[in-house]
Write a structure and sequence with these properties.
The protein has 10 helices and 13 strands. It is α+β, with helices and mostly antiparallel strands and about 400 residues long. The protein folds into 2 domains: about 90 residues, no CATH class; about 210 residues, no CATH class. It has a 5-stranded antiparallel beta sheet with strand order 8-3-5-4-12, sandwiched between helices. Strand 4 and strand 5 form a beta hairpin.
Length: about 400
């Protein structure tokens, strides 16, 4: 077992041969992701020289690529994002709802990532908000944070949205707080049915607007009649929406968000060994009670699966809706806290910007603060296209 094995090692050893073998099928985004991960925290990107203010230890610290697909570049972004979310938590139960799509829809999504991912977000959020606003179920305006994931444990393509939702919201006339029943948020079968209808209606609208493309095995869906038949079949398929156990409190919500929001397809910690062109990694088999197993893939197959999950440029994989939407979040949260008057919960303070925000800012010997006193230039000239893809 190699404790220091990273996705970057796989790309550095086998990336060139993968590019050569798949040159005609690699897009600009995939090439940029590979280059960013290969060069991350190496002399190629430059860096700085720093010393510990306490023990005097000196080291070279190379710059991060800051690409959102890089397993090494999510720590500080996650910490800063969570500090903002910490002050927004309400003293109420939180629920975790997951929306996924059938395999035939996933095939369309892979060829139309930006369009179908946006539909997935909208349909999931609208489903929750419409059902929650119905007086038969809750009769309230809700808020939610939605996070897109496109992978399963073995890196196969599996687009789905995780939604974290406070268990209640302001009444529709904004005069009182409406709480859901203890341990129960909204009926799953109702959510599933509405989600299917909203998603397929929006998919049809995108098709009519010429926003969908079909290639290879899906080229037969390009005709209006064939696409209509496909939609008709999808309306008869069961769509999966499921609710995980509710969180115990706001602290658990933060811990969950910290694990999920800035996650990439696979963490370096899951990699076990790279022998020749064979890579072994751990995975959790949820069909067998979450048993931990080991999978071995050829390096090229691992790279192929990893690159399945690259996102289109500028696409936001974390979105906020309802009373947590960006445009009016603070005003709505003020209303929520007013309606929840009497709660002893108070927002936790954000992190101190003067304190080290990432383990790399601390001395590995004594834990003291590392102080920068010099810069290291790039070892390579800058590329034409930036590696920074942190949106």
């Amino acid at each position: 077992m190699s404790a220091g094995l990273e996705v970057a090692d796989v790309f550095r050893r086998h990336g060139d041969s993968y590019r050569h073998a798949h040159d005609r099928h690699l897009g600009r985004v995939e090439r940029r992701v590979m280059s960013a991960i290969e060069l991350c925290r190496t002399a190629a990107l430059g860096g700085h020289i720093e010393a510990c203010a306490d023990c005097g230890l000196t080291r070279c610290a190379y710059n991060s690529c800051r690409n959102r697909h890089c397993p090494k570049c999510q720590g500080q972004a996650r910490a800063e994002w969570l500090a903002d979310r910490q002050a927004e938590l309400l003293p109420v139960p939180y629920f975790h709802i997951v929306f996924t799509v059938p395999a035939p829809v996933a095939e369309i999504a892979f060829q139309n990532k930006a369009t179908v991912y946006a539909i997935l977000f909208r349909a999931a959020a609208e489903t929750l908000r419409i059902i929650a606003a119905d007086p038969k179920h809750l009769g309230a305006e809700i808020g939610l944070v939605a996070v897109l994931h496109t992978w399963g444990q073995t890196l196969h393509y599996h687009p789905h949205v995780h939604c974290v939702v406070p268990g209640g919201g302001p009444s529709l006339d904004s005069t009182r707080w409406v709480s859901c029943r203890p341990g129960f948020f909204l009926p799953i079968h109702v959510l599933s049915s509405l989600f299917r209808r909203l998603f397929l209606d929006q998919l049809r609208t995108a098709f009519d607007a010429g926003e969908l493309g079909f290639f290879g095995q899906l080229s037969g869906l390009a005709g209006p009649r064939a696409f209509a038949r496909h939609l008709s079949q999808l309306r008869r398929v069961k769509w999966v929406v499921y609710a995980k156990p509710p969180f115990g409190g706001p602290e658990q919500v933060l811990a969950y968000l910290g694990r999920y929001t800035h996650r990439v397809a696979i963490a370096n910690s899951r990699l076990l060994s790279l022998a020749g062109d064979q890579l072994a990694f751990r995975w959790k088999d949820y069909r067998h009670s979450g048993t931990i197993k080991v999978m071995t893939l050829a390096a090229h197959e691992f790279i192929r699966r990893f690159l399945l999950h690259t996102l289109p440029d500028g696409f936001h994989r974390i979105r906020h809706y309802g009373f947590l939407a960006n445009g009016h979040r603070q005003a709505k949260l003020t209303l929520c806290r007013k309606l929840l008057a009497g709660s002893s919960a108070s927002p936790a303070t954000g992190h101190d910007p003067a304190a080290p925000r990432h383990p790399l800012d601390r001395c590995p010997s004594c834990g003291g603060a590392m102080i920068t006193f010099g810069t290291l230039p790039r070892a390579l000239p800058p590329r034409r296209s930036s590696w920074n893809d942190s949106s």
